[in-house]
Design the sequence.
């Protein structure tokens, strides 16, 4: 049974597999396979036995296979059949790996990827994420729900050749999310304003880091970007909760997301990337006026370079191209 | 001129190159070369024009080439000829890339690596690190000095074929260091004890995660290890400052370091790794009783797996082998 372990010094949770069966071996080789799966072998092309949720993809035929399907992710580190008990061993805190880990099969079609989807299809996908989050947070042991997507082997994708994403409900709040919350809260305490709202205002005025904009969203490269071509998509209207968005707002998001992913694919040669929805953790919704100070957003992290040791060991990232230049480049990609 | 940019939300500093000359291009290819350099082409085999510091390697001949040599790192993001001025643009804080970046040529011999060095040679190398830190911190604009080593292309090494490490003085405190300091300070406030001292006590009693031990040091896999085979070396006696160690303590450290690096090389098939000395930042030495709550240590981070998107986007690391198993495995390597 996997478990969550808390670093006793900085408080970061780490998921640790505890099956001693897996021995240190040729780990590098086993993770380095980057071959895209064939349609014949693809489990996600086939009909799924247990569908948790499904949604029709608009403007498609009425066959059952023209749906976005959500299934339970079989290989997950998080299991639903455990109790969320906290254990302490001296300094150390452990939570058993309880959680809900769902796999979203974004399309019935093999080898069709997110930027190829129509805006209506992408809107439906965002609706599916929101619906699953709303269901998962009903479990009182869930503290946070993470929606993310890995594309390409370098980004940690399993390269099945089938476009998938994940919705994961977990019993703790990830460190990176906590950092953002705590920083935004500090800013709010001093300024009585949302730091993200202030940032959006400054960025739209400066223009240099803005890539795309529509009525409800802005896509930009962050001022202190950790990664080359890191992009954030932020709703212009303040909201801490991704699931609060109306259908027209979701459609605007789908449109900006599609354009952006197309630019990344065309401009950067179809790189691996990660996509994460950063929304307020359910476990803190009622606390400390989180509604006032947190602002949900999406991070898109292309994986163009290996993270060097310097960054890894120190948390000190080196970005070898200024975000202004990457924004300018992406603006120019048709 | 590179600059340091502070993330306005979480306060993390990022080094950003600002030369617009470097255009987005075939970035992946240019960083992916993993070929070890030939002796004929190796700049570090040749006599160095400007040596900042040198130290004789014990039990070697008296030729000038039997020395550890320290030179200024030419390709550094940090430059000595800039003023440390802080600028604000609205929300954003920038510090010009002032800093001291030194390259330690660990040995005159090409293709001889750290685990091959004698204990006396390694002790001399640790002495060099301490001497350079002591010199660099005399500059009042330096807030922190980082000593690290990248071995292998996956760890960000330039693969010159010549064993080198870096000593970098910087005008800000890296985020990962700040996290450790703040966590240790919180613990001290509550418990009036050093969290690292408590951890060492618990680990030595439990034995399961201890790999090696000698009079002054313990090497262990941390309870909430982020990476497979992550190892920390900690001094048993409380001290916040790496440079405070006596010669006999440095020799003990050299001995444990040599054994550990040999185990990593033999047991894991000569993997890429990063090595970082985590010592108290000079900019905070006088503050908040840092001497009481911080405990210097070394982190060794083998790079056996690609960091997947889940980790990258969320700060939520997944470790697929429990640290108890990796410790047991490394204990067993002769």
Sequence:
């Amino acid at each position: 049974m996997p478990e969550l372990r808390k670093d006793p010094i900085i408080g970061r949770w780490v998921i640790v597999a505890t099956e001693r069966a897996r021995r240190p071996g040729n780990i590098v080789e086993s993770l380095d396979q980057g071959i895209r799966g064939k349609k014949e072998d693809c489990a996600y092309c086939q009909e799924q036995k247990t569908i948790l949720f499904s949604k029709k993809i608009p403007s498609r035929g009425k066959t059952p296979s023209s749906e976005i399907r959500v299934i339970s992710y079989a290989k997950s580190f998080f299991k639903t059949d455990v109790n969320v008990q906290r254990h302490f061993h001296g300094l150390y805190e452990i939570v058993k790996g309880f959680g809900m880990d769902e796999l979203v099969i974004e399309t019935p079609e093999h080898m069709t990827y997110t930027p190829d989807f129509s805006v209506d299809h992408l809107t439906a996908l965002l609706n599916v994420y929101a619906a699953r989050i709303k269901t998962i947070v009903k479990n009182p042991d869930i503290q946070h729900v993470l929606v993310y997507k890995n594309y390409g082997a370098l980004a940690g994708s399993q390269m099945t050749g089938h476009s998938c994403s994940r919705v994961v409900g977990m019993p703790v709040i990830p460190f990176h999310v906590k950092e953002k919350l705590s920083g935004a809260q500090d800013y709010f305490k001093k300024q009585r304003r949302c730091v993200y709202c202030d940032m959006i205002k400054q960025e739209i005025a400066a223009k240099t880091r803005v890539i795309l904009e529509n009525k409800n969203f802005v896509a930009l490269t962050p001022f202190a970007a950790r990664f080359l071509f890191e992009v954030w998509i932020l709703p212009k209207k303040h909201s801490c909760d991704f699931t609060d968005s109306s259908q027209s707002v979701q459609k605007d998001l789908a449109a900006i997301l599609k354009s952006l992913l197309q630019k990344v694919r065309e401009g950067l040669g179809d790189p691996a990337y990660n996509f994460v929805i950063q929304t307020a953790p359910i476990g803190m919704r009622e606390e400390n006026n989180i509604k006032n100070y947190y602002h949900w957003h999406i991070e898109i992290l292309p994986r163009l370079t290996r993270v060097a040791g310097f960054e890894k060991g120190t948390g000190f990232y080196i970005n070898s191209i200024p975000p202004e230049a990457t924004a300018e480049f992406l603006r120019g990609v048709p």
Residues 136 and 266 of chain B are 35 Å apart (CA to CA). The longest strand of chain B covers residues 144-151. The mean pLDDT of chain B is 86. Chain B touches chain A through 94 residues (CB under 8 Å).
